[in-house]
Amino acid sequence: MSTTTLTERYVHEVVRRIPAGQRDDVAAELRGTIADTVEAREPAATDEAERDVLTEMGDPALLAARYADRPTVLIGPDLYPTYIRVLVLLLTAVLPVVTAVAVVLDVIDGAGLGTVIGTGIGTVITVGAQMVAWLTVVFALVERAQGSAAPERRASPWSPDDLPEHRPSDRGGVGACAAAIGNALLIGLIVWQHTAAPYRAGGAGGDRLQVLDPGLWSGWIWPILAGLAGVVVLELVRVAARGWTVQRAAWYAAAEALFALPLAWVLYRQEFFNPAFLTDFNGDWTTPDSFYTAAVLVVLAVSAGAVITRFREARPFAARG
């Protein structure tokens, strides 16, 4: 049986939905009100009286809305600070990198100054808007997955049995969200370079080339993309569940293997980059074998480190289970 009392679970469900500045006062007020009301009931049946009092107080989500004096929001106060931190990270770290890449590609193509500036401004506006929109969608879905009652419960009267188990604050959610969004952007970049063929051989007016070997799309690129997609999904599941379990970590390891092993293989065989792109980009210089060896080692080391980290984070949950 959980060591968290019914009252504490009820108070937590109320205060997590209101602004941080009100939480301590509201929590103290609720605990006092519940305790006083229970004490005024039948002293010999404290547990039953507590359930009756909480039932009469009603759904904590509705009570929280009254305390906050506002309707239910798209992203609740429990997730909102994390949402802001991830949004700031994306707009100040990821967006500048994406913009710089787009500008550099235009410069390599020999585009004029006006075109380069237009590309930079357009990338900031379009990619920035996409980041804000998709991040909001993800957090809204997570909010409803972890903080909302199921539709069938809402159709029936609320009772203390609907209270979820109290879970501690999830500080690792920021990193998981950032990792999911970063990998999703990587999937988009791989697909974009295939469809747009952004590199122009010989500068402006030259033939358009893919950066990655077009032959990958006949085989190895599919497990790489599938593994990346699996990693994205599992990171989002981790955010919704507020932690890793051994089972989720095992699935994550499988997704990482599906991504990293084929990638390491094509790098080892030097079949990752488009030969026409390398010939035009390198000129008389030849990419040394040591570059590919180092790239293989980095891919395997980063992937293995991520898997080990997930299993370490899953240990406390396994121990409590």
Description:
- With 321 residues, this protein is an all-alpha fold.
- The protein has three domains: 6-68, no CATH class; 78-166, no CATH class; 167-321, no CATH class.
- It contains twelve helices and two strands; from the N terminus they run H-H-H-H-H-H-H-H-E-E-H-H-H-H.
- It has helices at residues 6-15, 20-40, 46-57, 60-68, 80-108, 113-147, 151-154, 173-196, 221-241, 246-268, 275-282, 289-320, and strands spanning 199-200, 208-209.
- The protein has a two-stranded antiparallel ribbon with strand order 1-2.
- The radius of gyration is 26 Å and the shape is elongated.
- The model is unreliable at 147-155 (pLDDT under 50).
Q: pLDDT below 50 for ≥5 consecutive residues: which ranges?
A: 147-155
By secondary-structure content and strand pairing, the structural class works out as: mainly alpha
Round the Cα radius of gyration to an integer and report it: 26 Å
Strand content: under 5%
Strand order of the largest sheet: 1-2
N-to-C series of helices and strands = HHHHHHHHEEHHHH
Number of helices: 12
- Mean of the pLDDT scores? 78
Pfam family, one: HAAS
Region (Disordered): 151-171
Transmembrane segments: 86-105, 117-142, 173-192, 220-237, 249-268, 291-311
Keywords: Membrane, Transmembrane, Transmembrane helix
